[in-house]
From TrEMBL:
Similarity field: Belongs to the LysR transcriptional regulatory family.
PROSITE patterns: HTH_LYSR
Single GO term (MF): DNA-binding transcription factor activity
Keywords: DNA-binding, Transcription, Transcription regulation
Domain of life: Bacteria
A Pfam family recorded for this sequence: LysR_substrate
Protein's name according to its UniProt entry: LysR family transcriptional regulator
Length: 301
């Protein structure tokens, strides 16, 4: 099996066209250099160099072909060495990130990515849209390393999360809705409305928001349309199927027939959290988490 040392010895001889000078350059004995070249030729089953004590060393036809490949191989080895050392310091590798829709609309995800790309340009980042429950499954399957999720009272074993973004809520509705003519709403205005909201097979989520809204407005809020994400909810709301209580950042998503209204007396905060494995082995992933949390701390200061 050819090794990197043999390739370096061979290329040095080719560049010097002289065994003694190549040995001096490599700081090895000429006999050791000659033995390695002979072993290389034996392993390959072909002569690579023409040797003549009275003339400079020359390449055989096979030697010329092999030299080109040897140079390329050494460059790949050097690159692999560099990447390995960078990866050990968290400066190279792959980070896979799952995110909920408002991770994008709020600018939280793009801000994290922007800062991280500047400090870690050699790290490849992959982003995948996923609802919060699906992200926790993806952690188990190794599909993602980091998640931008809706916070939970309790997280799966081995997962930790920190709140990185907070915002208030708005109501999305069709521009033909009777309430669309008002500049702003109060909670009691939403009594008897058909509500659209993401809701999964769990006790937590935006169902808590509707319950709190009903308490603030003095009515019982019922979920008429359950959707998988806010984008789907906005589509139903714009078509007049009901109203959707959404994070304010979602108002950046515009489509024909849709409008957003603030709720003056409902200051219920909604959060995004950065989730990761408690014992993360990847230096690149650890570096991303550290940078994202530092960014969040600076924004709060």
């Amino acid at each position: 099996m050819i090794d990197a040392r043999q390739l370096r010895y061979f290329t040095a001889v080719v560049e010097e066209l002289h065994f003694a000078r190549a040995a001096d350059r490599l700081n090895v004995a000429q006999s050791a250099l000659s033995a390695q070249i002979q072993r290389l030729e034996q392993d390959l089953g072909v002569r690579l160099l023409n040797r003549n004590k009275r003339q400079p060393v020359t390449l055989t036809d096979a030697g010329r072909l092999f030299h080109a490949e040897a140079i390329a191989a050494l460059r790949h080895i050097e690159r692999a060495d560099q990447i390995g050392r960078l990866a050990a310091r968290g400066l190279a590798g792959i980070v896979r990130i799952g995110y909920v829709a408002s991770g994008v609309s709020s600018g939280a995800l793009s801000g994290m990515l922007r800062d991280f790309r500047i400090s870690h340009p050699n790290v490849r980042v992959e982003v995948v849209p996923m609802e919060t429950p699906r992200q926790f499954q993806a952690f188990d399957g190794g599909e993602i390393d980091i998640g931008i999720v809706r916070p939970r009272r309790q997280y799966p074993p081995g997962i930790v999360a920190t709140i990185v973004h907070t915002e208030h809520l708005m109501v999305a509705m069709a521009d033909t809705h009777p309430l669309a003519t008002r500049r702003k709403l109060v909670a009691r205005d939403l009594k008897d409305q058909s509500f659209i909201s993401p809701q999964f097979d769990e006790d937590e989520g935006f169902g808590e928001v509707l319950s709190a809204l009903g308490t603030a407005g003095g009515f019982a809020a019922f979920l008429d349309y359950r959707v998988r994400d806010f984008i789907s909810g906005l589509g139903l709301a714009s078509a007049g199927y009901g109203v959707a209580v959404v994070p304010a950042s979602m108002s950046c998503i515009t489509q024909p027939g849709l409008c957003y209204k603030p709720i003056a007396d409902f200051a219920f905060p909604v959060h995004l959290a950065l989730a990761s494995r408690r014992r993360e082995l990847s230096p690149a992933v650890r570096a991303f988490v550290k940078a994202a949390l530092a960014r969040s701390s600076q924004a709060e200061a």
